[in-house]
Amino acid sequence: MEAENSAVRAMRLAADALIAGDIASFSDALAGDYAYEDRRKGLQLSHGKSDFIEHARVIFDLGLESYDLEVLETRGDRAALYRQTWHVGGFEVVGLLVGSVDAEGKAHAAVMFDGEDLGAARAELEVQSARY
Q1: Which one of 11, 17, 33, 58 is most buried, by most CB atoms within 10 A?
Q2: Sheet containing 64-75: which strands, arranged edge to edge?
């Protein structure tokens, strides 16, 4: 397992807030210009901060129970690649997530991939880490 960096800490903070149903803390963990992109097959969507918060609220309302987070790789202090499993309403949603944080340690960008799309996720990790 990779060492934790600011990106990992920000992901855990946001996910813990969402699990607890604390949407205000979840929102506070995201930078004002937060951007989310879902590149999983059949989903292909993107959200700014306010739309992503509404998306997260729907997931919580569907019965979000818990999540498992495995840090696969980090780049510097501000980017990381995770395998995450969300337990929602009796189902498991598994995917790869690349996330980065801004200078204040708030989640700045996240891109979701299908669980088997490790090559594309690693390429995105390089793109995000190059921004900082």
Answers
A1: 11
A2: 45-48, 30-38, 107-114, 91-101, 79-88, 64-75
- Domains of the chain as residue ranges with CATH: 6-130 (3.10.450.50)
Residue 84 banded pLDDT, cuts 50, 70, 90: very high
- At 19-56, the pLDDT tens digits run 999 999 999 999 999 999 999 998 888 989 999 999 88
Rounded alpha-carbon distances, angstroms, from residue 34 to 26, 30, 74, 89, 102: 12, 6, 19, 27, 9
Decide the pairing of beta strands 79-88 and 91-101: antiparallel
- Please state the pTM of the whole predicted model: 0.90
Nearest one of 125, 93, 120, 123 to 110, comparing CA atoms: 125
Helix 6-19, helix 49-61: angle, nearest 10: 50
